[in-house]
Amino acid sequence: MSKYMIPANLAVSDTGFLFMPSTGETFTLNEIGRDIFKLLQTGLTEDEVVSSICEKYDCDASTCRKDLDDFLGQLKNYSLLSEL
Amino acid sequence: MKIGLTGLNATDNPGPGVPVARSLKESESLNADIIGLIYDTLEPGVYMKDIASKSYLIPYPSSGLENLYERLKGIHSKEKLDFIIPNLDSEIPGFIKLEPKLNELGIKMFLPTLEQFNMRSKDKLFDFCTKNKIKVPKNILVSSFQDLNSASKDFQYPVVVKGIFYDAYIANNHEEVVTAFKKISLKWGLPIIIQEHLKGSEYNVVALGDGTGRTIGAVPMRKMYITEKGKGWAGISIDDKNLLQISYQVIEAMKWRSGLELEFIKSAATNEFYLLEINPRFPAWVYLGTAAGQNMPEAMIKLALKEKVEPYTSFKVGTMFVRSAWDLITDINVFEKFTVNGEL
Asked: Which of A5, A9, B104, B249 places its Cα 20 to 30 Å from the Cα of B45?
């Protein structure tokens, strides 16, 4: 299952505010986005992220996985994430 | 220390005088007393509190260097200036020529040589970058309307049409190139530069070279908000080693002596930095560097005084500036006094 790498110097605050020091770009994540991001930072796989989010937010795995794929696509698009 | 500054035009196309003054006044060792050297009676810096203790009108260098020198000599007889920092591109060659005479009066400056100044001019930058293997957008110099017509077959639109000193327009077709050419050449003369238009984000670096090739300070910034005139109205200090490395390379190759601003674009297509311009003085956002931990105007004065200046090695990443517009209220009598007497 896919694992992801987040740029080492990327700063993420508890409010979900992301700052990329090398480019000066900033992004804002909502609460679930912030949780997913923090889980990815700890090195969890996609499956593990899905189960953690489903447990916390009481959602079904297939919906969660679909939304997670969209979200990961956006993060990759902004160079905030790369696949290991 | 009395320091004369030009460029107190904190307008929508701001000069660097006010942020340079702000940086100098924050220096604990200089005890800076700022004397405004003003070209226009409505330069906002004249009316701002805690910037200049006194301001004097001076003639434009284009009215003759002898006029400018005599005026500066007159101001010096009253103020005993220790230092002058010219902050505007167009006046710097004149001040370079006046430097020996001003030195004789006891006024110091820290300027590039004319050769260095010319090396970074818009019509020479392409050659400099090519020679030093620095990425730069392709450009064509156009010295006449005939040149423009014969060169236009090589253009891939859009292109950027730039004046030799100021002004730039993006042109999407031949007609727009012609319009921009006419506008710019009437105002700023020839040649005109037709430059490849690269899409991407704009990044600038404020820096200080000591004249031996060494960089004393350098802070990169990403423009977060750009006005219609292309001016950065908000920005943030960033940590990009590559951008700094290119800046060190430029300063070393030119042996640049003075403050400078390097303007880059990071190509969205290649993710590489292209050098767009080198401005021969501190930029209007130089105070961001000071706030981030590198007071380069202060360091420049110390270099001129031959004090030992160690290069800055760090700065605070994520320091932001946001410019604002603020109406200064003054009385007609103040304006009258400055207009009639030429000093305030």
From this structure: B104
| Pairing label, strands B168-171, B159-162 | antiparallel
Written as six digits, the tokens of B233 are: 């109205």
d(CA B236, CA B338): 37
The answer to whether the beta carbons of residues B247 and B204 sit under 8 Å apart is no
Task: Count other Cβ atoms within 10 Å, centred on residue B41.
Answer: 16
Cis peptide before B61 (omega within 30 of 0): no
Domain for residue B133, yes or no?
A: no
Q: Is B65 helix (H, G, I), strand (E, B) or coil?
A: helix
Report yes or no: B164 and B170 within 8 Å, Cβ to Cβ.
Answer: no
How far is the alpha carbon of B137 from chain A, nearest alpha carbon, in Å?
21
List the domain range (segments joined by +) for residue B78.
Answer: 2-110+327-341
According to DSSP, residue B90 is labeled G
More confident residue, A83 or B48: B48
Q: What is the pLDDT of residue B122?
A: 84
Residues 6+ apart with CB under 8 A from B9: B15, B17, B39, B40, B43, B44, B45
Whether residue B91 is found in the same domain as residue B157: no
Q: ipTM of the assembly?
A: 0.79
Contact B46, B38 (CB under 8 A): yes
Q: Using 70 as the pLDDT threshold, list the residues of chain B that sit under it.
A: none
For position B140, what pLDDT does the model report? 87
Nearest C-alpha in B relative to A24: B238
Kindly identify which residue of chain A lies nearest to residue B316, measuring between CA atoms.
A21
Bridge partners, residue B277, by sequence: B263
CA atoms within 13 A on the CB side of B75: 31
| B9, part of any domain | yes
**Chain A partners of B317 at a C-beta cutoff of 8 Å?**
21
Q: What does the alpha-carbon distance between residue B91 and residue B93 come to, in Å, rounded to a whole number?
A: 6
Tokens of B67: 């006029």
Is B315's Cβ below 8 Å from some Cβ in A?
no
Q: Answer whether B234's CB lies under 8 Å from B285's CB.
A: no
Q: Is residue B158 part of a domain?
A: yes
Strand partners, A5: A82
Distance from the Cα of B153 to chain A's closest Cα (Å) equals 36
Beta-carbon separation of B238 and A22 below 8 A: yes
pLDDT number for residue A1: 63
Partner residue opposite A19 with nearest CB, options B203, B221, B318: B318
Asked whether residue B136 is assigned to any structural domain, the reply reads: no
